[in-house]
Amino acid sequence: MRRAIAAALTLTLLTGCTSTAASSDGKLNVVTTTEILADLVQQVGGERVTATSLVPPGGDPHSYEPTPADAKRVAKADVTFTNHLLLEPQSLIKTIDANAAKDAPNVSLAEAAESYGAHVIPLVENIGLDVLWLGLRVRGTGKQRGATRTSSVQLAATKLDGPGQLVAYLTESLGQPDRYFDSTDGLDKSDSTTLPPAAHTHLNWAFTKPGVYHLTLTGSLDNNDGKLQPLGEGTFTFAVGVDPHSVKPVSGGKATVLGEGHTDLTVDLDSGQVNAFSDAKKVGAAQSQVPAADVVIDVPNKALVAIPDDPRFSFLGKAGSQIHQLPQAVLGKHVHGEIDPHLWEDVANAKAYVQLMRDTLISQDPDGKQTYEANTKTYLSKLDELDEYVRTTLATIPADRRQLITTHDAFGYLASAYEMTVAGFVVPNPAQEPSVEQVRKLSDTIRNLRVPAVFTEPNLAQRASVLIQVARDQGVQVCSLYGDTFDDKARTYVDMMRHNADELKRCLGDHR
User: Largest Cα–Cα distance in the chain?
Assistant: First the structure.
């Protein structure tokens, strides 16, 4: 069945209501998006607070879809805390913003904690493909257009010219394809997708025949008011299996050929323009916006892949036949922004969260000020001890062995704060065997860096099959790190971070 594209359903039950003074047991009712945030709040609130998480134990905060019961819980909350910076899916953010009581603080921690000393870093995606890594992006805030964090930008494929068909689709975590643009039965209103402001996502781009294609994308803004504000449109040229330097762009002028690095087809909310936002070296700048009409996207013959022998992928054609495909690279739905949202992997950032939580609770429950301040002081001292423990533990790992190879980009802050290095790799489509080249690159990374171990996350084990197999083939350990969720073995933030430090030392330390 074709993917029905629409903005995520907002579970609005009690919009415009006012907050209850406290829960039935007299405690402040605090709802957070993740267990990590709930634990931090509980440490600050103590006996005056009941803190719960919407994302259940072991759930993935990047992909959790809210339920009507979640909307009811938010409506009854005295305080809500999200991480945001696009950590949580927009459907969850919409549910919170639509149902949170007007007089109940609704705090986005990652953004607000900077004033408490939190340090944010760019989300660096260091995946070295031998073809272009192509996605979709929304840039700008759109404030002058009335955009908020619950707004959506629609990107629609409105026209395709070329010798064959185009299917742009996303492979979800368990291998289920989700089609965004599919010209095989004609383009219509369903050939669109939505992204929040300042977000981007990854896709597979499959072409059924070689030749030159022209794809027109049109942008529009949805501010949840029942109207779509038109933005711009742009037409991109794809050179599929032909020399891109021999292909003229739509402008007829000099082409900017994009064939390596990372590029997103982008709607700019502020200017309304549609362009290519690229880090490709050939553009000549660290990151550049190139007008759509000047772009030629190279889809070379080395991008040829066989269609999986899996009925879920029959929309691509006959199993075993070859198509040109630019890969999505990162497995699963992966909508995020330009800033890494996993701030808590640096304990100093968790301290900033805690202080912001303290002041928020005091604003809602002034009678508890003394308790909140005392609890925070005690917990900050514990976090100082934790920070020192993580730092001194990781310092025992030889510098040449401080390499992190994982299946999830959740550890940038840990690496930045504690002098580790994150190495990237390609996660293949789970519906087909990884290519020899993909396995070779991952094997070379492990071999060249001489890493003694790779790391999976307890809740993402299903994404790790290739990493585990290559690690076994290379004779290295497979170890476990906590990224953004707990399990039965780690039920608090302190336990989680101590485990990560101990596991890194155990698996990467010099035991020769």
Answer: 73
Q: How confident is the model at residue 26 (pLDDT cuts 50, 70, 90)?
A: confident
28-121+344-374 shares its CATH topology with 385-508: yes
Instruction: Note the pTM of the prediction, 2 decimals.
Output: 0.73
Q: How is the beta sheet containing 28-32 ordered, strand by strand?
A: 49-53, 28-32, 79-82, 106-108
Direct distance between the N- and C-terminal alpha carbons of the chain, in angstroms, rounded to an integer: 55
Residues facing 276 on adjacent strands? 265, 290
Q: In terms of Cα–Cα distance, which of 478, 405, 472, 466 is closest to 437?
A: 466
Q: Both tokens of residue 450?
A: 């001489």
Give the CA distances from residue 311 to residues 209, 319, 432, in Å, rounded to whole numbers and listed in that order: 21, 8, 12
Q: Domain residue spans in the chain?
A: 28-121+344-374, 133-326, 385-508
The answer to whether domain 28-121+344-374 has CATH 3.40.50.1980 is yes
Write the pLDDT tens digit of every residue in 313-328.
Answer: 999 999 999 999 998 8
Give the CATH class of 385-508.
alpha beta
Neighbour tally for 320: CB within 10 Å: 9
The model's pLDDT over 170-219, given as tens digits with 9 standing for 90+, comes to: 887 556 788 999 999 999 999 999 999 988 888 999 999 999 999 999 99
Give the residue from 213, 305, 326 showing the smallest Cα distance to 259. 326
Whole-number Å distance between alpha carbons of 307 and 317: 7
